[in-house]
Each structure stands twice: as structure tokens, then as C-alpha cells.
Amino acid sequence: MSVSHELLDVVDEDDNVIAVRTRGEIHARGLMHRAVHILVFNSEGELFLQKRSMNKDEQPGKWDSSAAGHVDSGEDYLDCARREIGEELGIDGAREFELLFKLPASALTGNEHCMVYRYRFDGPMVLHPEEIDEGSWISPELLDRRVAQADSELTEALCLIWKRYRDLGRKSV
């Protein structure tokens, strides 16, 4: 099945399923749907970023969260996170996901309700060549600077997620 024909749940403002449509139709009509983002940190505290493939239909060539993807129709957020980290980074059997927060659907998230997880992993990874052109570990401080400078090489979703992540860290200190 082509990517645009994947079946996804259409949801309302409260993340309740109201219909099932193809990914292509959902994106064309700007309907709300679900996604996950995973922030993979190594034992040095660095975050793994992926550079989206130039073949992607949205934001090609931009740096994004470690792994991300749409929640398939009937799938829950955590199962999607496990699937995406396996498909995109080759991390099979991932279990210890830490739920960080949920972002409501908005223009910045592409009308996606986004569940954001943290995962700790030192490698090795096998990057999916159709999804990811390259990957890199980055220090939180460097990402702070890039986000503060509104670096156009970063996805809007990554910037939003990173700001919220850092805000959470400051509140827990």
C-alpha cells in the first residue's frame, strides 16, 4: 500500500476517533489525526536527530526528532512508537519508553495530536534509507541554540517539542 493510501484515524479536538480516512485525504483536507515523536538519548545525554529523506512529501531534508510517524487506524500511541523506532532506526524489541507529554493538534504539528516519548539507547542503529538521509547525535545545548535561532534546517515540530521538553526540565528542578 502506498504511503498516501495508509489508513489513519481522523480525530476531533479531544483526540476522539470520528472517522477513518487515507493519509492522502487527511493531509489534503487538513484533518486532525495522531502521531508519535520519540527522543532517543544516549548515555552521554546527547539527542539523536534524523535528517528526513529528500524523498519525503513533507519537510524533506530537515532535521527532525529521532523517530516519528503516524498512528495507524486502530493502533495506540505506544504501539506506534515501538513500530516507528524499529522501522526508522532498526531498534527492535524496544520496551522502556518514557511518556513525556502530549501536544494538541495545531498548525505547527501538521494537525497531529502528538504523543512524545523518551528512549535511552547507545546503538547501533540501522537507519531506514527511504525515511532518513542521515543521523547525528547533538548536545542539548547546541540544540537549544539552534532552536533559539529559529534554524530553518529544523522541522517546526522538533522546535515545538524541544521547547516543551526543556520547559518541563526547568519546572522539575
Structure described in brief:
The chain is of the alpha+beta class and 173 residues long. The chain contains 4 helices and 9 strands.
How does this model look, in words?
This protein is α+β, with helices and mostly antiparallel strands and 173 residues long. It has one domain: Nucleoside Triphosphate Pyrophosphohydrolase (Alpha-Beta Complex), CATH 3.90.79. Helices cover 26% and strands 31% of the residues. It is built from four helices and nine strands, in the order E-E-H-E-E-E-E-H-E-E-E-H-H. It has helices at residues 23-29, 77-89, 140-148, 156-171, and strands spanning 7-11, 17-22, 33-41, 47-52, 63-64, 67-70, 98-103, 112-120, 132-138. Strands 3, 4, 5, 6, 7, 8 and 9 form a seven-stranded mixed sheet that branches. Strands 1-2 form a two-stranded antiparallel sheet. The chain is globular, with a radius of gyration of 15 Å. The protein starts with 6 loop residues before the first strand and ends with a helix.
